[in-house]
User: Fold this.
Amino acid sequence: MGCGSFNAAKADAPAPKVKQSTSEGASQNMNNGKKILVAYFSWSGNTKAVAEEIHKQVGGDIVEIVPATPYSETYSVTVAKAKAEQAANARPAISTKIDDFDKYDVVFLGYPNWWGSFPIPVATFVETYKLDGKTVAPFFTHGSGGEQRCLSDLQKLTPNAKFTQDLVLSGSSSKNAQGQIKSWLDSLQF
Ligand SMILES: Cc1cc2nc3c(=O)[nH]c(=O)nc-3n(C[C@H](O)[C@H](O)[C@H](O)COP(=O)(O)O)c2cc1C
Assistant:
């Protein structure tokens, strides 16, 4: 798809911020006896809003996937870099650190659709923190292209995870999606 159709989503979104990459919210980190982590990548805040709502509803810990070298706040620069990284199948370093990742049974993993697929730092994340044997509940936001290869490319990277039904939201609906998130979580029995 062309860039024009997702410019609007960026225009409405807050400026990206680099956050401390530590797990937090450990006080209520069990749901149905499962230890939960919500992990997300977000450049302009849409997926972050969804991640925070999921965390609010299911509890557990939440962590942001943060590239060691942040993306530019300039849309066109980030678009060009993301495209080049995908073409090169790059693995940029991430600053995200998670202690004792093995303890998590369920990982809610979310990111925006970037060129039809995952932003490349997500690949670094799943190759660093192995999802084998874990339940993975994927969620995506997009400009207008929908899911495209967001899920199928993730499944290729981590074929030994147990995937639930995913949640796909347009970026423009991401800040008002409490009801859709609740329905999705109910359907997954969380
Ligand atoms: C580098 C880049 C590439 C994108 N590629 C697509 C795309 O191929 N299809 C699409 O529907 N949206 C695309 N988008 C739009 C984002 O998926 C959408 O705005 C998303 O909600 C942004 O999430 P975020 O605020 O968490 O970063 C792209 C955005 C960027 C910055």
